[in-house]
Design a protein that fits this description.
379 residues; alpha/beta; Nucleotidyltransferase, domain 5
Length: 379
Amino acid sequence: MRETCLRCRRPSTFCYCALLPDLKTKAAVLFLQHPRERDVAIGTARMAHLSLVGSRLLQGVGFDDHPVVAQAVRSGDAALLFPGEGAVPVQDCVGRPPSTLVVVDGTWWQAKQVLALSPTVAALPRMSLAPQRPSTYRIRREPTDQHLSTVEAVALTLGILEGDPRRFARMLAPFDFMVERQLVARELHVPRQRKVTRPFYRGLGELGPLVRAPQRAVLIHGEDNAQSRPDRDPGSSELVHLVALRPATGERFEAVLRPRRRLGARVAERLGLAAGDLLHGEEMPAFLARWRDFLGSDALLLGWGRHGRELLLAESVAPLEFIDLRSLTVRTLRRSAGGVEGGARRLGGLEPGRQAQRAARLLGSLEGIYGALMARAGA
């Protein structure tokens, strides 16, 4: 039996207690943990709990009858950190923060189970996060780039609510330590037969047409007019910003499109564009004509996921042959890419750009990913 730390419950060689901060919070923090999460290698809810003075960590599935939970619900000023209908962005709660922050810990399915069996908790006012970067939980796959581990989500939320992100970022020191230790341990204990692997670039056959005709490649990144859920207009997402690059020639394309529906409250800020530029943007017919001229007759589109392509299709742009660089990156790395900027860093050592415009910054990362994959495919 390995010696185990009684505080963090990790083997002594993996103990992170020396890195734990001792942070006082204005709001009480209450963690509701699904039982199956208790013995996960990196229990980030326990890590967050040990970092926050006065926080509580409860384990179970149904919590409505628990006296601590019942007291928090009766206070009338508790909030649930969980996305869903009516959830308010954390940034909008800075002026009226909750007295108790309730956090559900578990996988996406487990968290939904907890809320289904805890209706009074599920009925609490909800807050949601829109992280600027993907989770660094590299040993466990999150559902999307917008999902974070529990300790990351709580550190970000408290940093916003209390106006001191740097202080609460200290909660991530033990988390980063544990992730690195787990990755090292995993590498050291890989069975010998698994080291005899297929070629690193296997699975990049989709790039074959571009190895033979690189002038066909057109990298695209599109952004939509994202509206908050409570007052979202009916209909599909609409394209408002598109950037594209032909890597073979360096030729670039950009279009800022006038929204046909109400401009989402945070769209301009998220995209790094002036709201006036969007509201007075290009009309769709003029954009479509320029786009067709840029593409020519034999373009092959490449993007991160299919969101950009789907935005174009929603605007009645004729479908073109498309390659998903996210899928190729994940198959090449054999793990989560960590978003487009994480993929560029892991594949080619390319650091994120500093452009104010989100689309231009991500297009630069796409260019780095494309170059790295093409090199592996034999171009």
